Automatic annotation (TrEMBL):
Keywords: Membrane, Transmembrane, Transmembrane helix. It comes from the Eukaryota. Coiled coil: none annotated. The keyword Transcription regulation does not apply. This is Major facilitator superfamily (MFS) profile domain-containing protein. Residues 621-641 have a biased composition (Basic and acidic residues). Residues 142-565 form the Major facilitator superfamily (MFS) profile domain. PROSITE patterns: MFS. Its main location: membrane. GO terms for cellular component: membrane.
């Protein structure tokens, strides 16, 4: 009996000690102490509500980005074979008029018909002289002068029979007379650069809108802008109108991908955010693979533009079912709206909404209404990322790594159809190799951390690109294989850069931080089409250039602090402390193993949720302790960076029974179910 009393006494002492530790020195507002990550395990981290929204709305909402970003490659496709058009000789058989009017030239060590020059002969005068009967036996004279094509071109339309380059449109549309070849063959590249010119502006503007007006409104504005630009593309009658429409489309890329990505992350618990990231990238890649099939089946560029945009008008039906992010509503102080969404989430998930949290939020709502004024919310901007030295350095490093990663990834994606023997198969394979890379990356980023997989994939991917220069020109298949290896590795880094940047940027400025890094990364996308254009003269040169850029970006990422097994920053102040004590030896090791592992949280931590209540008394913890016997496991270090800085080298003592009382700040170990199935670690 005495043992039981002593045990209860120890438990009481620990509870009192814990309360005293968490008791605030001042009394901040209630909503400042509320952390949604504390509530989600209770109402469901990935229940029926989240699954319906993520798989039914947020993930399909990523598909338009891939469709509208890459359909232009096939709208501006150029046939391999074309020659000057001679109207006076159109009645002659094709081979005869080519041999008579088109000079021969050397191309890739082969003698072929010239694409840009013809003989400067007055064919009209020759026909009027009455010698037309002799044209069937006449041969070209090498002494005839050569002139550039002035009356258009003829094209081999066996593979490419419609594009803005050759202007083979529907019969109901008038001739556009683009003929973007020879001296004007740079124009399709200008159109691709025009698409990417809108990107840096769009990601910054939609980033601000996303953080200030909400995720829901910003997505539908972004979608409307995308579809308006796509409609203008279909109706264009000249090149510059078409290029202008591509700028409008570019405003939404990649914002139309990032917004549902952020919505998905903010709807689920921290255990499932890596899973949501992989699924988001999988849907994006699946959309590109589907696009390769669509472009193979539909070769008319006008119809292709309609097919890859009109179906997405149905996405406006999401307005009736897509909720606002409750995390964003809480951040903006709109507690009443957030409470309704969270209560509905708990109801759909079949969970009971904690009465303590409900009462707490309702009390705060009543206080706000009594004040009869809206709570002032401090809007943060880009300059807040650069005010302090450590945050400024991390912002620069994230941006440089993002610039290299996004530039090379998109450059390789654009260059896929130029390699191999079939552009549609090459484009499909360039997308298909991304799927296994995501699965491998999913594992490595939760075991090795984020920094090393990011850097290694970029460095090795760059090496694969560079060594293509060692292959002979006729090694078409070998070059394609190395390209696919590089694309797979860069796709893995493309998966990591989003969560890694999100983990390094504090929650307070996450949207603006990701938008700013995307903005700078988008500047590289304006240049990369001109790099791929160099492949017209030297197929390997663009790969070598992109390889070196990728290796430099990978080495830059080694300086960033690791985020796996660390409590992530929420405010700008915590962001400044995170990684502040970085040393050179830190970049030579993978993610550190946690000192301690904690069991998955099996209780509602109402004590911490009410830690800043104005009442002197604090609520009791509602424990649901599992009585199963578990093997002893290590535990995690549950201190934030600011806690560590404040305490110096002195670590708090954790007695065995404390693990049931102390809040699990974040899930930093790879949790496993009873059958050994891996659950994901903490994400952004």
């Amino acid at each position: 009996m005495s043992d039981i009393v002593d045990s209860d006494g120890d438990e009481y002492d620990e509870l009192s000690e814990l309360r005293q530790r968490h008791k605030p020195e001042s009394q901040p507002s209630v909503d400042e102490a509320f952390d949604l990550d504390d509530l989600l395990p209770t109402i469901g981290e990935f229940g029926k509500y989240q699954k319906l929204l993520v798989f039914g709305i947020c993930l399909p909402a990523c598909i338009p980005c891939g469709f509208c970003a890459f359909n232009q490659l096939f709208m501006a496709d150029t046939p391999d074979d074309y020659w000057c058009r001679i109207p006076e000789l159109l009645d002659l058989p094709l081979e005869q008029r080519k041999s008579l009017a088109i000079p021969m030239e050397v191309e890739n060590d082969e003698l072929v018909y010239s694409k840009c020059y013809t003989y400067g002969v007055n064919w009209t005068q020759l026909l009027e002289s009455g010698e037309e009967d002799d044209l069937t036996t006449m041969e070209a004279n090498s002494s005839w002068p050569l002139v550039k094509c002035s009356q258009g071109w003829e094209y081999n339309t066996s593979i490419v029979w419609s594009s803005i380059v050759i202007d083979e449109t529907l019969a109901s549309f008038p001739k556009h007379n683009f003929d973007l070849v020879c001296d004007q063959d740079i124009y399709p590249t200008i159109g691709l650069a025009a698409l990417n010119t809108g990107g840096p502006v769009g990601v910054y503007l939609f980033g601000l809108l996303n953080d200030r007006a909400g995720r829901r409104l910003s997505y539908f504005i972004c979608l409307a802008t995308l579809l308006a630009g796509s409609l203008m593309t279909s109706l264009s009658r000249d090149f510059w109108t078409w290029a202008g429409s591509r700028v409008i489309v570019g405003l939404t890329i990649p914002a139309v991908y990032q917004i549902p990505f952020i919505i998905s992350l903010e709807l689920v618990g921290e255990n499932y955010r890596s899973f949501v990231t992989v699924m988001t990238c999988t849907f994006y890649t699946s959309g590109i693979m589907l696009l390769s099939a669509v472009t193979y089946l539909e070769r008319d560029w006008v119809r292709l533009s309609y097919i890859t945009s009109l179906p997405f008008y149905a996405y406006f039906l999401y307005m009736f079912v897509m909720p606002e992010s409750p995390r964003w509503l809480l951040m903006r102080g709109r507690l009443e709206e957030a409470l309704k969404i969270l209560e509905r989430m708990a109801m759909v998930n079949g969970r009971q909404f904690p009465e303590a949290v409900h009462l707490k939020l309702e009390a705060q709502i009543r206080r706000d209404k009594l004040k009869k004024q809206k709570k002032k919310v401090a809007n943060v901007g880009l300059m807040d990322l650069c005010r302090t030295p450590n945050m400024r350095l991390k912002t620069i490093l994230i941006t440089l790594s993002w610039f290299a990663n996004e530039t090379v990834y998109l450059g390789l994606s654009y260059y896929g159809p130029s390699l191999g023997t079939n552009q549609y198969v090459s484009f499909f394979l360039s997308a298909a190799v991304e799927l296994p890379s995501y699965l491998c990356c999913w594992y490595f980023m939760d075991t090795w951390g984020r920094r090393w997989p990011l850097s290694l994939s970029m460095i090795l991917g760059g090496v694969a690109c560079v060594i293509t220069v060692m292959l002979p020109d006729d090694a078409v298949d070998e070059t394609l294989v190395l390209y696919l290896i590089s694309k797979a590795l860069l796709s893995a880094s493309f998966l990591i850069i989003y969560p890694f940047a999100g983990e390094l940027y504090p929650t307070q400025v996450r949207g603006i931080g990701i938008g700013a890094s995307s903005y700078i990364g988008g500047l590289g996308l304006i240049v990369i089409p001109f790099v791929t254009y160099l492949g017209k003269d030297n197929l390997k040169l663009p790969l070598v250039i992109m390889g070196f850029v990728s290796m430099l970006g990978g080495m830059t990422g080694l300086r960033l602090p690791e985020t796996l097994h660390h409590r992530l920053p929420q405010t700008i102040e915590e962001g400044e402390e995170f990684g502040k004590n970085w040393q050179f030896k830190d970049c030579c090791r993978c993610a550190q193993k946690p000192d301690v592992l904690s069991q998955p949280a099996s209780y509602e931590n109402l004590d911490v949720l009410a830690g800043s209540s104005n009442n002197e008394s604090e609520m009791e913890l509602e424990l649901r302790d599992s009585r199963r016997v578990r093997e002893p496991t290590p535990r995690i270090d549950e201190r934030t960076p600011l806690d560590t800085a404040a305490s110096g080298s002195v670590r708090p003592v954790h007695r065995p029974s404390m693990k049931r009382l102390v809040r699990q700040m974040s899930v930093m170990d790879t949790q496993r179910t009873h059958d050994g199935t891996m659950q994901l670690t903490h994400w952004i």
